[in-house]
Write a structure and sequence with these properties.
- The chain is α+β, with helices and mostly antiparallel strands.
- The chain folds into 4 domains: 49 residues; 88 residues, OB fold (Dihydrolipoamide Acetyltransferase, E2P) (Beta Barrel); 83 residues, Nucleic acid-binding proteins (OB fold (Dihydrolipoamide Acetyltransferase, E2P), Beta Barrel); 158 residues, Beta Barrel (OB fold (Dihydrolipoamide Acetyltransferase, E2P)).
- It has a 5-stranded mixed beta barrel. Strands 7-8-9-11-10 form a 5-stranded mixed barrel.
- A hairpin with a 2-residue loop joins β10 and β11.
- It is elongated.
- Bound molecules: zinc ion.
- The site of zinc ion (ZN) has 7 residues, from loops.
Length: 422
């Protein structure tokens, strides 16, 4: 059935103008609303109000994903600018959050309506759709936005200013003040051929995050203190990363920013809840060592683990020896897999690849290396730093530091003593 036929059917069922229904239908489909859902929503719209008037919603908390279109007055909390590509076309969209006294809701504006964070606006004929299980407002061609003189008081933070630890994946239109700690310039092959980008690490008083500047701005140099307006947060290799797009404004700051020297210490439960976190510290007991630890072989082509001389992708290969540990750490709130590289493993093992190879040859069994590492670390408490990522297999931390915890031993002894004395 063609769009025209759907419009015909709706128009005759509802007794309204076909062109009007068709325009509404096209509008909804343009926002990726499935045809059946779009028709239902139009049946509600025209069925409820025969005059074709759009329903008016008084407050945001009343908006339901089944609402077709809404009118509302709200305060713009954040505005993020982004370029999206679909059907071979490039479009600049604005996205963020608007709020009233009753609640807040995400929006996507498909045109530049000229509003900024902090403005109070009346949105006419915004279409409601469900996005990630929540209603969201699409402000498109058939919508109107009026910027009001008076400003609506809302119980939410207005503007995108955040500290680094307050950011999470998916945020856009954020404003941060940071110092650039590390930066490197690279050339990548992208959609439009070769592009130069900058990437590295930025920090503020609360934490550190990796960044990518897709426009390789000259201001992004080591030691620079900067205000970055309109950045977004994407996930890269399981941890949040700040993206500077071509819409990001960079201003040099005349004030020092002193990053924390200590890493943020989180419980495993807290860390897992973030969905991925950069450069943190956890303290817990090693309770197990997983398969694929100790002396292992990697495929010379793809670096993946080789089992019985076979790579899953490249078949029979001459594996390259490596040392690695995948250990389970538990801090009482949750468990995570800690991954140690060759150097860290060699330190625990008390010898490098050659020594491990010799031990395995003498025992005629490669697993002795893993067992020895297990005896060394299982049951002990460690302080682990690194980047924690979360996927369907659970939480995983690539350790940048792995040291036995000492502070707690004294504290535990003291606690025990107190208990004995009392
Ligand atoms: Zn391979």
């Amino acid at each position: 059935m063609q769009l025209d036929d759907h419009a015909e059917e709706l128009a005759s069922d509802l007794g309204v103008d076909k062109q009007e229904v068709k325009a509404d239908l096209e509008n909804l489909i343009e926002y990726s609303v499935p045809v059946d859902e779009a028709k239902q929503s139009l049946r509600r719209k025209y069925g409820d109000t025969q005059s074709g008037e759009t329903p008016t919603v008084s407050s945001i908390d009343e908006i339901d994903p089944d609402d077709g279109t809404v009118n509302l007055t709200a305060r713009v909390l954040t505005v993020g600018t982004r370029e999206i590509h679909y059907d071979g076309e490039t479009q600049v969209i604005r996205e963020g959050t608007i709020a009233d006294e009753s609640g807040k809701i995400g929006y996507t504006a498909w045109d530049d309506f000229g509003f900024e964070a902090g403005d109070t606006v009346t949105v006419g004929n915004g279409s409601v759709r469900e996005f990630r299980d929540k209603p969201e407002i699409n402000i498109g061609d058939s919508s109107t936005v009026t910027i009001k003189d008076e400003s609506l008081e809302v119980p939410y933070r207005v503007g995108g200013d955040r500290s680094l630890t307050e950011l999470s994946v998916g945020d856009s239109g954020r404003v941060i003040e940071v110092v650039v700690e590390e930066v490197e310039t690279r050339t990548i092959s992208g959609r439009d051929g070769e592009t130069t980008i900058k990437s590295g690490v930025i920090a503020d008083e609360t934490g550190r995050l990796p960044f990518t500047d897709w426009a390789a701005r000259p201001e992004m140099t080591t030691g620079a203190t900067l205000r970055l307006e309109d950045v977004y947060v994407r996930e890269f290799r399981g941890v949040p990363e700040i993206s500077l797009s071509k819409f990001t404004t960079v201003t040099e700051l005349n004030k020092p920013i002193e990053p924390q020297s200590d890493r943020t210490r989180l419980t495993i439960q807290e860390a897992v809840k973030t969905g991925g976190v950069y450069d943190i510290e956890i303290v817990g007991n090693i309770v197990d060592i997983q398969d694929g630890s100790g002396l292992i072989e990697r495929c010379p082509e793809c670096n993946r683990i080789v089992q019985n001389g076979r790579c899953r992708t490249h078949g029979d290969v001459d594996g390259v020896d490596d040392l690695r540990v995948k250990a389970v750490i538990d801090d009482g709130t949750g468990a995570a897999t800690v991954v140690l590289d060759e150097e860290q493993t060699a330190e625990i093992y008390g010898g490098g690849i050659d020594a491990a190879r010799q031990t395995a040859r003498d025992a005629m069994d490669q697993s002795v290396v893993r067992e020895k590492i297990g005896e060394e670390i299982i049951g002990r408490e460690y302080r682990v730093s690194g980047h924690l990522s979360v996927d369907e297999y659970g939480a995983r931390i690539e350790a940048t530091q792995f040291v036995e915890a000492d502070g707690n031993v004294a504290q535990q002894a003291e606690e025990l003593l107190t208990r004995v004395e009392s």
